[in-house]
Amino acid sequence: MSDAIRETPATPRDAFDLLTAGNLRFAAGAPRHPNQDAARRADTAAGQHPYAVVVGCSDSRLAAEIIFDQGLGDLFVVRTAGHAVGAEVLGSIEYGVSVLGCPLVVVLGHDACGAVAATRAAVQDGTTARGYLRDVIERVTPSVLAAQAAGVSEDDGFIATHVRHTVDLLMDRSQELADRVASGRAAVVGLTYRLAEGSVRTVASRGLDLPQDGTAVPAVASASAVR
Ligand SMILES: [Zn+2]
């Protein structure tokens, strides 16, 4: 547990590089499983200083600490089906950013998302879901409608559109987050994850100068990330 990934990043760029370096290790099949031992558990018991808020889909294959190869105390994670955002999600994000001081917020979507597929079906059929699943679908519906209006027909396009819309929503709804991004203290990045490959792609960025065309995140940290 003595590798160089102990430092808690203080800037959006350092946080993004550390997070994506972990994903590169995971995607390459070479995870280090940092910060998962008894010493780390003891170190973090008195207080937490995570460096990124991850707002992701609840999908069982999208476990944040696993796919980013992180450990205890590293990530402040908020997950809902289809990363649907309501008041409690926004409050949790604001807690991670303003109270815990995370310099990075990541919105994490993925291919073959059941929530997006269910919403596409509901929009297409004009049906509504039963119970509280309806609330999830209603929150994903604006993204699906926007993608359709833009001529999107493939799953990848719907997923990317929903991630971008979620990034916009966070920036629109949370003045706290928008202020921190404007002053350079935080960034919001939208990533799409590929289930089979385990890799992420950047499709949106506020506060960080990143390619947003959906190409794979490059080996930004260093070659040692996957060693
Ligand atoms: Zn999903």
Task: Explain this structure.
- The structure is a single chain.
- The chain is an alpha/beta fold and 227 residues long.
- The protein has a domain at 12-36 and 47-112 and 154-220: Carbonic anhydrase (Beta-carbonic Anhydrase, Chain A, 3-Layer(aba) Sandwich), CATH 3.40.1050.
- It is 42% helix and 15% strand.
- The chain is built from eight helices and five strands.
- It has a five-stranded mixed β-sheet, with helices on both faces.
- It is globular.
- Residues 1-5 and 219-227 have low confidence and may be disordered.
- It binds zinc ion.
- Zinc ion is lined by residues 57, 59, 82, 110, 113-115.
- Belongs to the beta-class carbonic anhydrase family.
- InterPro entries: Carbonic_anhydrase (IPR001765), Carbonic_anhydrase_CS (IPR015892), Carbonic_anhydrase_sf (IPR036874).
- It is an enzyme of class 4 (lyase).
- Its cofactor is Zn(2+).
- It holds the Pfam family Pro_CA.
Q: Which helices and strands appear, and what pairs or packs with what?
A:
Blueprint: H1 12-27, H2 38-44, E1 52-57, H3 64-67, E2 75-80, H4 87-99, E3 104-110, H5 114-125, H6 133-149, H7 155-173, H8 175-182, E4 187-193, E5 200-206
The chain binds zinc ion.
Zinc ion is lined by residues 57, 59, 82, 110, 113-115.
